[in-house]
Amino acid sequence: MVKIAIAGGSGSLYPQRHSTCFADESTCLPRTAVDVAQEVIDVLVATKRHEILLLSRKDAPDGWTVPGVQWVRTSYEDAQELASILQGVHTVLSFIVVHSDIGNTSQSNLIDASIEAGVKRFAPSEWASSSFEYMDWYAGKAEIREYLRKLNEDEKVLEYSLFQPGLFANYLTYPYKSANHVVPIETPIDFNSCRALVVDGAEDARITLTTVQDLAQVVARAVEYDGEWPMIGGVRGTELTVGQLLALGGKIRGSYSPLYSSFGGGREHTPRADLDRFRQELRCGQAQSF
């Protein structure tokens, strides 16, 4: 049995919280990490082999109970309090929403507390792509990577691994759910509407697709792994080019009017000069991006 602490995984238990907004409320992003946490928790609970602490800023919802899971409230503001909570914990899995963690304070405190408490393993809040170009809302992930690297620069004080599954294939089933907790979102390639927004010349760019179910199974096995965790998790479902994904869409969904579809032979291109506008539209999650 492994004692596991999961940070940031309670948000999806509050139905109204499917997204989080920046301070000026001009941009809202899906709380993907929170939903992924619930997928992972389900798999870990199903093994009936682990003791799980679910760290949350809120009290547990009325009537909430999950066998093998203990709800612990914390503000993440006091590293010493966190260290006390983490006593006896073997592995910490962080699903803290990085774009709402100003200055990475919560996750940095969690890391410091893990070291203080003698935690063996730590998984920072990654759960996405390894590259963040044009995704500035993920800047906090890169900063935490550097924080962990520096902590271990002279000697290893905390074993950690970056779980980077790429894009969840479950998003491509929008608007239909294909997972218990992960909510599908509109992406630049929309199979349902048979349309795509493609950066000019990017057809050969390679992307990684992994189902959240596969990721959850990998994490569950990693928790029980006896050897040392690699720094890079190496999670990969399918790797293909954007062009191959578009071709797959055409095979599945058929031909459509070039006005609306990149699958039907006519592709709507976004010049590289428009990438800033494209990025902002993605941040806002607006369908009119297409």
UniProtKB/TrEMBL annotation:
Alphabetized Pfam families for the sequence: NmrA
UniProt keyword terms in alphabetical order: NADP, Oxidoreductase
Signal peptide range: none
Keyword Transferase part of the UniProt annotation: no
NmrA-like domain boundaries: 39-223
GO MF: oxidoreductase activity
Stored Gene3D superfamilies: NAD(P)-binding Rossmann-like Domain (3.40.50.720)
InterPro entries, per database record: NAD(P)-bd_dom_sf, NmrA-like, NmrA/Isoflavone_reductase-like
Family in the record: Belongs to the NmrA-type oxidoreductase family. Isoflavone reductase subfamily.
Name of the protein in its database record: NmrA-like domain-containing protein
